[in-house]
Each structure stands twice: as structure tokens, then as C-alpha cells.
Amino acid sequence: MIRRFTNRMNARFLDPRGPSAPAPARVLFWLTLSSAAVARVAVAHFEGQFFPVDFPHHPVTYFALWASVVPMLLLWPLLPWTPEASGRDKLASLGFLVTTYALFPVLDFGVHSLMFLAVAHAVCVFGKVGGAATSFTFGLVNLVVQTLHPKIPQTLVLTNAAVLAAFGLGVTAMVSLLISAAERARRTRELLTELAEAHHALRHYAARTRELAVAEERTRMAREMHDSTGHYLTAINVCLANAERSTTELSDRSREDIGEARELAKEALAETRRWVRALKPLNMEGRTGFEAIRALTETFVETGVTTTFHADGVWPEDMDGESELAAYRAAQEGLTNALRHSGADRIEVSVSVLPGSVLVEVADNGSGASVDAAASGFGLSALSERLRILGGELRGHDRPGGGFVLVAEVPLRPATALEAHT
Asked: Which of 57, 219, 350, 394 qualifies as a cystine partner to 384, CB 3.0-4.6 A?
């Protein structure tokens, strides 16, 4: 917070433009007018009259020019210092410049300070052209005033006018450089902000990639344990049961050994299933059912798409762990597929509990795809195979209004040989 405040203060100090005068301009304005007034009073005290002794024109002209300080003071708080000012505000700026031209010939002190303020203001509101025009106008005013003075040589008049115009052009160049530097600084801050956001997004995607890789490996290990070790243990259990039924000449000791072997096989099978359930994706840890899929949907918001989640029904407490994992994976694969390939900016995830199954729908507003193209992806192919083994189904179709819908029907209890024999 402190750094942001410091950056804003530095930017405002560097860039004189804004809805009101910058602090240095305000200080210089009031210091110039107060110093000019003090100088006029001091000179009048030594000369014995407020009207200057060497003023070549009628006193009414002198006091009329000094009277321009009144509208100047009234206009100063209203002045904009930005090119985006309205037409009415720019008229106030023009009025302020006119008052500076009028006050300029009667100042004993602060001439260059007042000119500096006027030219800087013109550059901020009207650009470089406005600053240059103001500079030449000051030179012209000085030329006219000193030409009418009988005691100033014509050569000196032209020199003073040229010097004042050059001074104004120098102020124009300086203020323009300040504005350019402020623009570059602002653009640099914007680029740094974009870079920081891109870096944050990259770190998020890298972390998500690692998480998905781990989840894929855990799922693969769970499937291997489910399909190989679980199958062998089930086969052993079935063989032992058949041996116990078909052999009539077994001794009591042999029957006890076979029965004990069957119990051990059942325990090993139950332990294998616990490990399969433990190897569910990381995002599901600590969550089940709707909560897990809702949390998964919300994490995709950070990728820049709008996601919504809708749940219908009550999540079945007796749903098999492998089926629950498949429902989660269906939502995950649908979200990832829509994000990578559809170009969608809105994804809707709906989970409905039906009699005997859970229906997971992932719909997007992207470009759509054919059913064959959607099924050809590795992730969707693996998911389709997993659902087929469980007794479920994966299907997809284009939406009438544009986009694609992926539908996964997951049975509450897997219809596999492994489950049938246990």
C-alpha cells in the first residue's frame, strides 16, 4: 500500500497534468502574486505614490491592468490541467491566459514566474502548440508595451521580445519532456503490472500442471491396483470357494486352511480397495461429492473463464469410491477440454443424482466439436474407457445455440467382474 501511494505521488509530481494544478504550480502562483504585491508596495513607499513614476501612460491604464488580478484569482481554482478538459473549462484557461497578458506589463517582480505558469498551463491543456502560441504572445505583448515606451531603444525592444519568446519555448520543451517522461513511466508501470500478472498466472498454471500430473499418476496407480491386484485376489477367492465346494474328501484341517485363505484374500481385497480410494486426485482430499466438484469448478475461474456449478438431488452416501472418482474426473476432463479446445469464456457444470447413477454435464459456449473429434482426445478416450468398465457412458454433442456439451453417466456401483465376485 505504501509503495502504491509513493508511486502515485511520484507520478503526479512528474506529470503536471491533472484535474487541478499540481502542488509546485500552486505554491509558485501564490508566491509570485504575493511577492509582486509586496514589491509594488515597497517601490510605492520609496517613490511616495502607488503609480510608478516612469510609467509612460495614463494612471487609469495602469490601474486597469492591475485590476486583471481579480479575475485571475477567481479563475485559478477552476483551471483544468489536462487535455481532456471540457470546452467550458478550456474557456476558463483562455481567460486565465488573457489575464496574465494584461498583468504582465505592470509587474515589478515575478514576470518570468507568471510567464512560466501560464506557458506550463497552456502546454498541459492545449499541448505543445498551445505552449508555443502562449510564448510568442508574451513576446508580442512585451514588444508592443516596450515599443510604446519612449525611453527604450528599438534594438533592446526586439531583443527582449525574442528572449521572452525563447524563454517560453524553453518552458514548453521542459514541460513536454516531463509529460513524455510521465507517459513512459506510466506505461512502464502498466507493463510491469501485466508482467507480474502473467508471472502469477504462469506460476498458477505450472502448479496446476504439476497437480494434474500427480493426479493422473495417482489415478493410473489406482486403476492398476483395481484391475490387476484386485482381479487376482478375486480370482483366488473364487478358486478357493470352488475348491471348498467341489472337494468332499478334505480333512477338517484342510477345510480350515481353505477358509482361512479365503478370509485372508477378502481382507487383502478390502485393503486394495482402501488404497484405491486413497489414491483419488489431490483436489478431492477433504471433500466428497458435490463439494469436490464445486471446488474443482471454482478453481477454473482463475484461468479467466466464467464458471457456474449446479447440483440437483442428494449425493448418495453409498456411492462406490471408484465411481465417485470417475464422476470427479468427468467434470475435470470436461472443464479442461473446454478450456483448451473450445475457446469458450463461460463453462457450466451440472451434476444430477438419478436412480442408480450420477449424471455429470459440462457445457460451454465455445466453437463446438463433432462427437468423433471430441472422442479422439487422449483424456476423453481414457475417461470413456473408464466409464465403460464401470458400466457407465460418455457422450457429447453440440449445443443448438453454440458450444459443446459433454455428458458422463456414472453408475453408483461399478458393474465390473471385480464387483460381481465380491
From this structure: 394
